[in-house]
Amino acid sequence: MKLEFAINNSVDPAARYLTWSPSPLRLRLLDADPTGGPIRVTLTESAAPGGGSIRFSTGPTTAATATLAVDLPSTGASVTVFVRGKYGSPSSADGDVSVVATDAAGQQVAKVPVMVRIRKNANSLTVPERDRFVSAFAKLNNRGSGRFRDFRDMHVDGPASQQAHGGPGFLPWHRAYTLDLERELQAIDPSVALPYWRFDQKAPFVFTRDFMGVPDPLGTVQFSPSNPLQFWSTDGAGGVNRTPRGVDPAVRASPAVANEKATLDLGTDYVDFIGMEGNPHGAAHVSYFGGYISSIPTAAKDPLFFLLHCNVDRLWAKWQQQNGRFDASSSPSYMVRPGGQRFLVGHNLGDSMWPWNGLTTPPRPQTAPGGFLADSPCVSAPGPSPLVRDMLDYGGTVNALAALGFAYDDVQ
Amino acid sequence: MASLKTKSGAQPATKKSAQALQRRRAAVRKEALSHALDASRTVAARVKALSVVDVLEDVSVFSDVLDVLLDGETNPLPLRLAALECLQAASFREQQFAPYRRRYIAALRRVCKVSDLGLRSRVIGILVRDGDTRTIDQLLDGLRDPQRGLLPPEKALQLLVDSIHSGVYEVAKTIAATPPNQAARREALRILGGDTESTGYFADLLRNKSEPVEVRQLAATSLNQLAPDRLLAAARDLAMDEAEDTDIRSLGLTALANFGDLSALRSDAALQTSVDQLSAAQAYDGTHLKTAAASFKRLCGA
Q1: Structural Rg of chain A based on CA atoms
Q2: How high is the ipTM of this complex?
Q3: What distance in Å separates the CA atoms of residue A307 and residue A198, rounded to the nearest whole number?
Q4: Chain A nearest CA to B152, separation (Å)
Q5: Closest-CA distance of chain B to residue A285, Å
Q6: A165 chain-B contacts, CB cut-off 8 A
Q7: β-strands A108-116, A17-18: how paired?
């Protein structure tokens, strides 16, 4: 018996990456006698110890189970079911869990390795996960040239900063920004997901020379000779300026940074939650270190910046899940000004977002580095030039087609 | 996923209770500001209070916190640093901060002259990263004439890494040649990492076994920027040189593994054999070299 699997609507192995959200799994027989009746196969998983785990369901909203019986037409017509990562069991390596199909006699007839690819706490990564991430990041940086240069140039002062900060669009813009970067990393190594820095907890594993580096007393970050981030460059100069400010995040959390509970308790409406831009977001930027990360025009020169913003996004995702705020048409999910007034362009739900929209007329900045937002072989959303509203339903809760292809290890 | 299509997963707060919560929070922030300004309280208590204050709540709040930063006569240093941190965090809210920016920058320029090196260094760093040409020129003047220096040369150079132009290269070359200390030399070399005229200099530094590892690492990074092919050629030689420092061999392997041509590396039999031997050698257990060899095999193994 020969089966064809298409995960995320593709037979391409590049599409075999799952999150906690249901992904379509299309099966069809390639060699059955077309005059025969349907043939039953049972889907299960084969998982490496400590690896990912998956579940199956007949529909995107039906209960997910460890096994699923599927009757496949002998005509070769396809049947679509759904597969997703089992919450709490992310993969730690590519292909550490497989979709297995067995026939009525219990014989394996097909096996396809997949990965439950989830954004994790940087402090909890395994050594191989860390190493894959820093390698992909160093390659993306590529001497500060190439595609990373665009990410650096997107996060600068002036009109560019106004597109990304100080308004309700702060969270959607940075979600798009980190997603764009993550997809570029995945184009280098598809097993990589952007990790987050829990800046309200000590992170001894993160602040080592083998990972995000350790600043010397002057504030120049030191990396080990086997860490590819030692080659990190931006704006024609190597290295990272990150001056210690008295609270070592490897040892303790800064009391000036609001913790997760306080952040989630800001309020159940977006108009209250967006205050997190000040604290913990702004506080995390300035409480631990001076140097690049402590100023808007230079923050993106420090690789730690992207882990900081991954945590900002995770807090938003957790708040959304806690309060059911995925639906852009529901007013507590975002901010709308009364009386038809608008926020600065780029901050309203129906606005496209710079730079991915390529717009350079005022009040947009005069250049739009980077072009379109990177696509993904796993999902079609948010598209090359997303609107603000496209960034809310990241898990496809309201509309399955809106899923952005990422999830967090502690947000179901 | 939980709470799939419910409008609200949590207990919905009524508009009234949400407004009451916001009023309570505003009251807490107001009280915190009062505590922060209260000289009868301990410094630690005042610093803690400042962390709760929202300087963008009202122009008077901003002014009060700015005054804490500016007034070195009555305010202890930790409190001034906390005020600076409060203001700097607020600056990330670009649109709301815009009306206050000019006053903020003016205040930072005044604080540039304080006697405390830590505070001085912080505000100068903020100004340089903000592109303040006046401050950048002052740092350059200080490097040319140490009597006029606002900061130690190594710190001034480190900050100027963010403002590289021909004038900075000239100063960096002078200091790299006759450095007042090793940290200054290192930062001068970082600046020169973008100077195409320094390519040969970095190529020589990288191969110079008498140089510290830190300097050779920096040379490798700079050469990677200026002439990546030359770095990769040197990296291969360094990785295979059994007389070379193990950290430098690690650096070489790491450069090759992450930036080299994959098919060329896989077909390089001599290099592959060398890495296999490294991986098997117990003498290197626990070293960066072993780690680098493992990464190389993972990424580029034949």
Answers
A1: 22
A2: 0.92
A3: 9
A4: 10
A5: 7
A6: 92-95
A7: parallel
